[in-house]
Design brief:
Elements (H helix, E strand, L loop, with lengths): L1 E5 L4 E7 L5 E6 L6 E7 L7 E4 L2 E4 L4 H8 L9 H7 L3 E6 L4 E7 L3 H13 L5 H19 L2 H13 L13 H4 L4 H11 L5 E7 L3 H12 L8 E2 L13 E6 L5 E8 L6 H18 L4 H8 L8 E7 L2 E9 L3 H18 L3 H18 L3 H12 L8 H7 L2 H11 L5 E8 L6 E2 L1
Parallel strand pairs: 3-9, 11-15
Antiparallel strand pairs: 1-2, 2-3, 4-8, 4-9, 5-6, 5-10, 7-8, 11-16, 12-14, 12-15, 13-14
Helix pairs in contact: 1-7, 3-8, 9-12, 9-15, 11-15
């Protein structure tokens, strides 16, 4: 395992790639009782088309999340959660658009917990009966998601932003798509994406890095296996297919998501640099200390629910904000006007330096969270970037680069607005 010290952060990272292809990262925290492990695969809800074993495959929407559920099933009726609990640990998992993560936290029995995590994630056990039973459980989850205004407004937003990208489909899939999932399709996706060369193990705590690597090889083996090739044929223009989507639900006041379509990011240092330029652009445009935020808040157009930032997912990216407002259209017009003003007048040097310090400070403070750190180390690894290098990237960003981003992205043609109105408001439809 290689050891890297990051003086600006006072962090150490042990990292290496095992003969089986698994990337292992360990962030030592001497003297801490808590230990956290993330076991992550570069496979999310958007990856439904791929080439594997010489064949092209298309699998139903929602299968990544379905697979996450079913991997907690073990032979002989073993209860994974109960076994973790008996070891004094808590375990859970989540599926995002572009990755799936399994994790546990504990204060004791770390090695046993790590073996259990690696074992159950790498041991698929599906029967047609259990798969069919799971459909009802996930269908209920889909129904709850459809009834949640926060989910509805975001799904409306991405459908307004994108023509073809699978972000248009909910992570959970649909009631129709999950009925197409079988034990065979689950086994196929597990063989294709749950191979060490497509996965990462990240551990934080007072642990021995070499022991983590040894246990990983013990459970997963030393041999590498083929990894599926994702077929991301998502041709998109930067123009939104429509500008607005309006709907009604049981909300106290209108809820909105507003976004500007940006160019998808690639991988490596330059991609991360572009992401951080966009982060700072969001801070300059509508961050809590920005001129626009303070004015809209004083005028009562937004409240404390308002916030935003830059979101990036494999194949798409957007500068977005959201919140509650009686006049979401006014928020949109104000953002367009403020971006034009900033592009003409620039960002005062003092404001720019304060903004960079603030953004950098938030990232550094987030390192106090084991969960946030594990997540980001894994997510950035899949974009070919060492996350602990973010201070040097922030330091290199200029004010002019931020203005160039605003000039390019904040345009009416790239703007989409999704609003959920209260049921007593009769406004509904698309523009």
């Amino acid at each position: 395992m290689n050891r890297t010290h990051y003086p600006q952060l006072d962090e150490i990272l042990y990292h290496g790639r095992l003969p089986n292809g698994l990337t292992v990262a360990v962030v030592p925290k001497e003297g801490f009782s808590k230990k956290l492990a993330y076991f992550v695969t570069d496979f999310g809800s958007i990856h439904t088309d791929f080439l594997f074993e010489g064949q092209e495959h298309h699998v139903p929407a929602g299968i990544a999340h379905y697979l996450e559920h079913k991997l907690f099933d073990m032979p002989d009726g073993r209860d994974v959660s109960a076994e973790f609990a008996a070891l004094g640990a808590i375990t859970n998992a989540f599926t995002s658009y572009d990755m799936t993560a399994y994790y546990f936290s504990c204060t004791e029995n770390f090695e046993d917990c790590l073996r259990l995590l690696l074992e159950f994630v790498s041991t698929p056990y599906f029967t047609e009966e259990s798969v069919r039973k799971e459909q009802g459980i996930i269908d209920q989850e889909i129904g709850m998601n459809e009834d949640a205004p926060e989910s509805k407004v975001f799904e409306n937003l991405v459908s307004t932003l994108y023509h073809r990208h699978p972000i248009r489909v909910p992570i959970l899939g649909t009631s129709e798509s999950i009925r197409e999932i079988t034990a065979d399709t689950l086994h196929l996706c597990h063989r294709a994406f749950y191979t060490p060369g497509n996965m990462m193990l990240c551990v934080i705590g007072d642990v021995d890095a070499e022991e983590v690597a040894t246990i990983s090889e013990e459970i997963l083996g030393k041999d590498s296996r083929p990894v599926a090739q994702k077929l991301n044929n998502w041709e998109e223009t930067l123009v939104c297919p429509q500008s607005e989507t309006l709907s009604r639900m049981e909300v106290a006041m209108p809820m909105f998501d507003l976004a500007f379509k940006s160019r998808p990011l690639g991988k490596g240092d330059e991609a991360i640099r572009q992401e951080m330029i966009a982060d700072l652009a969001a801070e300059a445009l509508f961050g809590e200390s920005s001129e626009l935020y303070l004015r809209l808040y004083e005028e009562g157009i937004i409240d404390s629910s308002f916030g935003g930032g830059f979101e990036t997912i494999d194949g798409c990216a957007m500068l977005m904000c959201s919140g509650d407002s009686e006049n979401p259209e006014a928020v949109r017009e104000a953002i367009l006007a403020q971006a034009e003003k900033l592009a003409k007048e620039g960002i005062p040097e003092a404001n720019f330096l304060r903004m960079k310090r603030s953004a950098l400070g938030r990232r550094i403070r987030a390192l106090d969270s084991f969960d946030a750190t594990c997540f980001r180390v894994c997510a950035y690894h899949f974009t070919d970037f060492d996350y602990f290098r973010f201070p040097e990237v922030y330091a290199s960003v200029t004010a002019e680069e931020i203005l160039d981003f605003l000039r390019e992205v904040i345009r009416q043609a790239r703007c989409a607005l999704a609003v959920v109105h209260p049921l007593n408001n009769e406004t509904e439809g698309s523009v």
